[in-house]
Amino acid sequence: MNKLELITSLKEKADISKTDAAKAVDVFFGSMAESMAHGERVEIRGLCSFLVRKYESYTGRNPKTGKKIRIKTKKLPFFKSGKDLKERVDY
Description:
- It contains 3 helices and 5 strands, in the order H-H-E-E-E-E-E-H.
- The two termini are 20 Å apart.
- The protein has 2 domains: 1-39; 41-91, HU Protein, Chain A, CATH 4.10.520.
- By secondary structure, it is of the alpha+beta class.
């Protein structure tokens, strides 16, 4: 499911306009992204949680040349599925 399909589904199920559904989806995901940008954890009970993990710097290799390079410290989003979601997927 992509963003447009999500908006269409919300529009049909909530019986609202496509514009209102698009605003709701934008606010929802915008708020999640903003919270994660501030290092906060986002949890949707029974479905999943999103958090930011910090990865320390390490030595890697340039795949083209094979030369060793230093990979900088970075923060990346991490998704963890909830128990209910795992059970729904593994039926």
